[in-house]
What we know:
The structure holds 2 protein chains of 2 kinds.
Chain A: H1 3-21, H2 30-52, E1 56-58, E2 77-78, E3 81-82, E4 85-86, H3 88-109
Antiparallel strand pairs in A: 2-3, 3-4
Helix pairs in contact in A: 1-3, 2-3
Chain B: H1 5-23, H2 32-55, E1 59-61, E2 70-72, E3 75-76, H3 77-101
Antiparallel strand pairs in B: 2-3
Helix pairs in contact in B: 1-3, 2-3
Amino acid sequence: MSYTQLAIVGILVVIIVDLWVLRTRLLTRKIFWVSYAIIVFFQLVSNGLLTGFRIVRYNGEVIIGSSTPVDGPPPFIGDGRLVFAPVEDLMFGFALVLLTLSLWVFWGRIGVQRLPVAGPPRFSPGGNRDSESST
Amino acid sequence: MSNFAYLGVLAFCFIGTLWLEIVLRTRVYRRWLRLILSVAPVIVIFVGWDLYAISANHWTFDSSQITGIMAVASLPLDELLFFVVIPCCAILTLEAVRSVRGWTVGDEPTDIGVGDES
């Protein structure tokens, strides 16, 4: 299978895992989409470094766009790429992130280190109501 | 470029999220068992995908920009560490948003099975 096909299959499998296998239903939660928006921004930055500097190079026969050039960086945008990386990497990343977070919530839900919960921030905008250090 | 280029990108990701554990009290690394149980299956599945992709020539690595140490068969150590670091970053981000906004993620005791009764 091509990377394009595998990425689509991967995303569909992980969606099924979140909604119906582990039943974490992160896809229905605001916190997931806000977190993913932050993650995908930094994915574009870090993956842009990996692909722009051609640390990782792609074969044009298995992606929508062309092969990583041998003599310079791939297009910043266009030819099936976004910030140097193949758009397939966005699907790969989405599957990686959703599976990870689904498992994290799954283990917490069945009682594996559900506590201590996150927060509150040490420096919250509205004043710190919990200033004792617990670490 | 140096042999530490790939590791440098991973260090950027790791250090770029580490402060969340301290400042926002995400308590992800402290819950290390849950972290390992969450990341280990991801490593197995995505390393499998990666090994297939490498064998099928989907992508290659610039040998002058990675350590050159092989982790598993044709999988560079750098690439294996990617599947350790990035999931940790993702979980830290989720818990950072929960710390700041207080939104539920589905592991709260009062929230078990909400909308999910069958």
